[in-house]
Write the structure tokens for this entry.
Amino acid sequence: MNFNHMMPLKLLVVFFIILNPCGCSSSSSANFPIAKPSCLDHCGNVSIPFPFGIGENCYYRDQNSNFAVECNTSKLKFQDSPFEITEISLEGQFRTMNYVGYNCYAHNRSIKSNSPWTSLGMPFIFNSTSNKFTVIGCDSIAIVQGASNLREYTTGCVSLCNFKEDVEDGSCSGIGCCQTSIPSGAWQINVSLSSVFNHSSVLSFNPCSYAFVVEEDAFHFYADNLTNLESVETLPVLVDWVISYKNCNEAITNKSSYACGLNSECYVEEGALGYRCRCNEGYEGNPYLGCQDIDECRNPDRCGKYSACTNTVGSYKCNCIKGYHEDGDGRCVANNKKDNWPVFIGVGLSGGTLCVLILSFCFFSKRQRQKEKKLREELFRKNGGKFLQEKLDAAKRGGTNNIRIYKEEELEKATNDFDESQIIGRGGFGTVYRGELTDHKVVAIKKSKGVDEDQVEQFINEVMLLSQINSRYVVKLLGCCLETEVPLLVYEYIDNGTLFDHLHKKFKSSLSWDIRLQIASEIAGVLSYLHSVASPPIIHRDIKSSNVLLDQDYIAKVSDFGISRLISSDDDQVATMVQGTLGYLDPEYMLTGLLTEKSDVYSFGIVLMEIITGKKVLSSGKPEAEKFLSNVFLASLEENHLAEILDNNISSPENIDQLHEVAMIAKRCISVRGEERPCMKDVERDLLILRAKAKVISLQVFEKDSTKSETLLDMHSIGYGSSDYFTSSGQYSAPYTTTEQPLLTLPSGR
Ligand SMILES: *[C@@H]1O[C@H](CO)[C@@H](O)[C@H](O)[C@H]1NC(C)=O
Ligand SMILES: *[C@@H]1O[C@H](CO)[C@@H](O)[C@H](O)[C@H]1NC(C)=O
Ligand SMILES: *[C@@H]1O[C@H](CO)[C@@H](O)[C@H](O)[C@H]1NC(C)=O
Ligand SMILES: *[C@@H]1O[C@H](CO)[C@@H](O)[C@H](O)[C@H]1NC(C)=O
Ligand SMILES: *[C@@H]1O[C@H](CO)[C@@H](O)[C@H](O)[C@H]1NC(C)=O
Ligand SMILES: *[C@@H]1O[C@H](CO)[C@@H](O)[C@H](O)[C@H]1NC(C)=O
Ligand SMILES: *[C@@H]1O[C@H](CO)[C@@H](O)[C@H](O)[C@H]1NC(C)=O
Ligand SMILES: *[C@@H]1O[C@H](CO)[C@@H](O)[C@H](O)[C@H]1NC(C)=O
């Protein structure tokens, strides 16, 4: 804004004109105060507009946001945070310096590394379009995990190369540099780095791997960066801010915390989680302090040559000067007669109506949860049919779930009247039939054994849970039938058997190591999602190889949520009747009856053992010590005889290290004490890294065999994403309901 020009003298005829008294010299500095009176508005050369501020009464804060910053040696930071803020805009963004992750090798050992993490508290979000997760190195696997508004996410990038000459400046396609997006809504970024070959063959020109989230425009990749990043500690990222996680209606309700000052209005940008303020049209200034009228007449050309400008509050008027009149098109033309009509060319004033339209956006969380709890209680008392119907209606209204209500005769016809020959599974829960609907769609139909209340309850439980989960790796519920005495559930038909079948029965040895590792990481992903993304968290309670179905592409689909439990936020331990499958059942849970997520971790550990040994979990008719796979497994680990119990079909010199690593993960998962077991998101990350390594190694083997070096280079980018772990109902998970979230937190290991 440059108001430096003086108006041409010939236009200064009209006495109303108010000249801009400010001879502002800097074009960037505004001519209105940006901070509160007697508050510091600069730190170094970074300006600090309110709501940001230093010291008591200088910044904005409410129950879920805090804009307190501090200035130390000319560096602007959030309180108790190492991250320097380099720029703040009133349009809702700031730029901060984020840590670079590294993993350096010398000879054949890692000498130093870190795993930095950044957690932006409310109401700050990493901008997903301007920032990129970037990995630099010639033997580098990096995983970025974190929390976003809707879920936790895991994604990553692999970057490889054989020769420095192959690396191109400006290209981040996986050869020396790899870039990928971060999901929208991310407020936490955890970076972990790994390598496949310890940089052994690239040490001379690339001893280190680097990984960081960076503003795309602020980082340009050059081949030199393979060696010259050692001294770079931080790089800029762009962060979006809102004033508070409230919509405008909610915000305006509480006058004492409403942040928009005089002559400003509240608005919520599409996709944003909270509101911001902006000056009403015709006003300027810091909307959080109050906006002042813009003197439009400072622009000498505002009204045209024969018209005089008059500033009004929020707008301005143009009046033809003496001797001229308005010609009907807004122009002033010379008078023939004496008339001299003032003409108003007003600029439309837009009131504060816009924001009202954009609202009614999904703020479920607490109320929703309480509602569900109440409904659930009702379910336990009455029979479930009515509840189920309600649930389905709600899902339908929300447009989130396409759960269909099937007619009884439709399903009878599909299964040939529930003929024995159509049975594809049987269990404690009931029977599963294969069915073909009239549109030739093949489905699996689950029918409860009896009408006993427990079983009906399990069915309803399953519907309720599955209607909240939307993951590619969970068997999809298509619909149900309520007309029968017992409800029937209709699922997508997964036609390639269960993991159990493949490991122990029909299709023995058909699963390669790559596929087994993939299946393991998919199951880990589902559990990680159930435990830490689903809201409230879900404990599956019956993880076992026969509950993992495989499709034609060997994609794992976790099934059977019949005895799964929702864990409400106020009790993370639930006392239940011990249920599960012998051999997979967490001994701690068996003893105490207290259920936690770690019980699933235990069962998953057992599945991992099954995957690498190809042995059954429970071998009846053997001596007590050899009956349980877990005992045999732990004994062989202890005696360093792991190789002996590994599945011969998959163990080979190339992957023995990986098998060993998986064995160690399995061992941690079955630690006797639940608290010593890792959480599923760490397991997921470790398995993803292993998978990336396995992929690279198998490519290399292939390359050796075919003596064709191009192959490897073409396939360097391996992207992983679990962004399909997404509840389409738009529920927010925990981060927004806690107030203790630190604004920014220190990275570890630095
Ligand atoms: C002020 O900002 C400029 C860039 O805008 C930068 O180069 C300079 O180092 C900054 N000065 C201080 C003291 O931070
Ligand atoms: C209104 O805002 C103030 C200041 O943030 C807060 O202390 C108070 O609890 C809020 N009142 C309500 C009803 O939310
Ligand atoms: C300023 O920063 C230095 C290190 O950068 C730190 O040691 C010092 O305690 C800080 N001072 C204040 C007042 O926070
Ligand atoms: C690691 O380095 C040592 C010497 O520093 C060497 O003897 C050994 O063979 C190397 N191992 C590998 C796997 O390269
Ligand atoms: C991210 O930054 C760009 C550029 O400043 C901006 O246009 C966009 O609205 C931002 N995204 C969000 C979600 O705010
Ligand atoms: C990120 O790291 C922090 C600190 O180690 C941890 O508390 C948090 O759970 C991690 N988040 C994810 C998604 O791994
Ligand atoms: C990498 O180093 C680790 C220990 O530092 C070692 O166990 C592993 O075998 C090495 N891998 C390769 C491919 O050199
Ligand atoms: C990357 O390398 C180029 C060329 O040497 C250098 O100018 C640039 O500063 C490097 N990037 C960073 C972030 O250090």
